[in-house]
Specification:
The complex is a heterodimer of chains A (95) and B (492).
Chain A: H1 5-14, H2 21-38, H3 73-77, E1 83-84, E2 87-88
Antiparallel strand pairs in A: 1-2
Chain B: H1 7-15, H2 21-39, E1 42-45, H3 47-62, E2 73-77, H4 104-111, E3 115-120, H5 160-167, E4 173-178, H6 184-190, E5 193-196, E6 216-221, H7 224-234, H8 252-255, E7 264-268, H9 278-293, E8 297-301, H10 309-324, H11 342-353, H12 356-369, H13 375-395, E9 401-405, H14 421-425, H15 432-437, E10 441-448, E11 454-461, H16 466-480
Parallel strand pairs in B: 2-3, 2-4, 7-8, 7-9
Antiparallel strand pairs in B: 1-3, 4-6, 5-6, 5-10, 9-11, 10-11
Helix pairs in contact in B: 2-3, 10-12, 10-13
Classes of the chains: A mainly alpha (95), B alpha/beta (492).
């Protein structure tokens, strides 16, 4: 599978990364290079194999459903580029 | 020179009051001031905080209450969140970020009395094998090619700053993270011991996430024993990481001198890469001979899916990265680039904040997870990942550990392997399978190439059997007698 110009733009849009028009062709070539190399996986017989989602071969532990952290909005908001009171501030979304 | 001591020696010296923790830390800070402008191993140097920690260490020593790492100066990869100390992940997007919390691993090192000299440089978001993708500039390896002194070599990556710092004697040890080889490959390039423990052995809490199912925090040091001392402090169950193993921490240090008598060491035939330099092949054979001489039995084994490891990794890791890095949106922390509306703010912030390699991986990850392609790429990769784990499980039914080269070459020069992303990825061909399977692996310096550059051997072990890895690495270290030092180093 080879990505075309429109697909590169669509992926960038899904990933919320602005890509300038002059960057698309370079990106397209790089991505196609990587995807072409990945094609080798098609030769592996995966019939009947269950997918492995992670390396931790263990059951997830249960914990008590209680609040153990929090209550320090100033610490949380200390790194916010913009805040209003105890809230993150963003450009107006709804007119 | 205080900066030449091992951690074990410094621990003795501090307890015997041969020197103080302040003297030891000052010697390292002076070395950093002298050499960091050239090596760029640290993004942030914490002079005042380090000296304050050293003074506290001296108080503990005076009171007769030292802990495992009291007064030992370390470098911390700038991927571990450190409370009140800027943590960049090597990215512009986290340039202004000062964490209000401490990662579990670094909190445990502080609990044990360690001194943090500063935050070590790395490839952006730990994505790279050369430290060339850092937004804070590349790291220069302290090692030089004998026949080509002008060439500036890479320290490897992604934990390149950690490796350069420990190698150049700017720190006695360091933390790193290893998602596809990011501890072991730089350890090999810089003549250090570097361990990626079992997945779940060290908590990932407070470590900036790249690919959560593949990220492994671990230590770097100049000796096997020092590496074991550091891992002993970094490891342990953490309720804040749901994948953290509920297991006690063994005495890793004691395991280093255990020896290899009676151990069965596997040689995976698929690790004979095409075009691998003959000196690496020869060193590998030498390593096997050392282990035989020390009483181990060497057994041929097969890991048939090895060749698919890298391509599998380059689906799984970018997929997880695209998801993890979605959090950098310019709203809650980090860089912000204002836009016409919220969506434009996101897109401009992420375009400005992420470097090329990170953007490329996010786009690959977004694509392989997107509707219509998920099964063809991501699901297939997860199934091949299962086959790679099965290879290891079957091999470990026959042997106690595997011995392989760590990397297919010695360190390369800055600018080399940059023209093609896939070429750069090939550096990790021998290290990636252990990340996919979650099994522990260590790189130990074993010799030099014709240019005088370090080459490492990798020992891969059974899940949660780091002790056997320390035993095998200890035997290789003793037999190799690796005593080479880099050209650029404190007092050098």
């Amino acid at each position: 599978m080879s990505l075309d110009h429109a697909t590169v733009r669509r992926i960038a849009s899904l990933a919320r990364i602005r890509v300038e028009e002059h960057e698309v062709e370079t990106l397209r070539n790089e991505l196609n290079g990587i995807l072409g190399w990945i094609e080798q996986l098609n030769e592996v017989d995966i019939t009947g194999i269950a997918p492995l989602t992670g390396a931790a071969n263990m059951a997830l532990a249960l914990r008590a459903d209680v609040v153990t952290d929090g209550g320090y909005p100033d610490k949380i908001l200390a790194n916010a580029p913009e805040r209003i009171g105890d809230f993150y501030a963003v450009p107006k979304v709804v007119e | 020179m205080l900066t030449d001591l091992t951690i074990a020696e410094a621990r003795e010296g501090l307890r015997a009051k041969d020197f103080s923790a302040v003297e030891l830390t000052t010697a390292h800070l002076d070395a950093i001031d002298a050499l960091n402008p050239r090596l760029n191993a640290f993004i942030t140097v914490s002079h005042a905080a380090a000296l304050e920690q050293a003074r506290r260490a001296d108080s503990a020593l005076a009171a007769g209450t030292p802990r495992a790492l009291t007064g030992i100066p370390l470098a911390i990869k700038d991927l571990f969140c450190t409370e009140g100390v800027r943590t960049t992940a090597g990215s512009k997007i986290l340039g202004p970020f000062v964490p209000p919390y401490e990662s579990t691993v670094t909190a445990q090192l502080l609990r044990d009395g360690a001194v943090f000299l500063g935050k070590a440089n790395l490839d952006e978001f730990a994505m790279g094998s050369s430290n060339m993708t850092s937004a804070y500039g590349p790291v220069e390896s302290p090692w030089k090619r004998r026949q080509d002194q002008a060439a500036v070599l890479v320290p490897g990556g992604s934990s390149g700053g950690s490796a350069a710092a420990v190698s150049a004697r700017l720190a006695m040890g360091a933390t790193g993270t290893d998602t596809g080889g990011s501890i072991r490959q730089p350890a090999s390039y810089c003549g250090l011991v570097g361990m990626k423990p079992t997945y779940g052995r060290c908590s990932r809490w407070g470590v900036v996430a790249f690919a959560s199912s593949l990220d492994h925090p671990g230590p770097f040091a100049r000796t096997v024993r020092d590496t074991a001392i550091l891992l002993g402090s970094m490891a342990g169950h953490d309720p804040k990481d749901s994948t953290s193993a509920f297991l006690p921490v063994p005495d890793f240090e004691a395991a280093c001198a255990r020896g290899v008598k009676g151990l069965r060491i596997g040689v995976p035939r698929e690790y004979r890469a095409d075009g691998m330099p003959s000196e690496i092949e020869a060193l590998w054979q030498q390593g096997l001979n050392w282990l035989r001489a020390a009483g181990a039995e060497v057994v041929d084994v097969s890991l048939p899916h090895t060749k698919y490891g890298l391509a599998t990794y380059y689906i799984v890791a970018p997929a997880e990265a695209s998801s993890n890095l979605a959090r950098y949106d310019g709203v809650r922390f980090g860089l912000r680039h204002d836009g016409e509306d919220l969506r434009d703010l996101y897109e401009r912030t992420r375009a400005e904040g992420f470097g090329h390699e990170v953007r490329r991986r996010i786009l690959i990850g977004t694509y392989v997870l997107s509707a219509g392609y998920y099964d063809a790429y991501y699901l297939r990769a997860q199934k091949i990942r299962a086959l790679i784990l099965k290879d290891f499980t079957e091999a470990f039914a026959q042997v106690d550990a595997l011995l392989t080269p760590t990397a297919p070459s010695a360190a390369f020069a800055q600018g080399e392997n940059m023209d093609d992303p896939v070429k750069m990825y090939l550096n990790d061909v021998f290290t990636v399978p252990a990340n996919l399977a979650g099994v522990p692996a260590v790189s130990v310096p074993a010799g030099l190439d014709a240019n005088g550059l370090p080459l490492g051997l990798q020992v891969i072990g059974k899940p949660f059997d780091e002790e056997t890895l320390f035993a095998v690495a200890g035997a290789i270290e003793a037999a190799a007698g690796f005593a080479a030092v880099p050209e650029v180093r404190a007092g050098g």
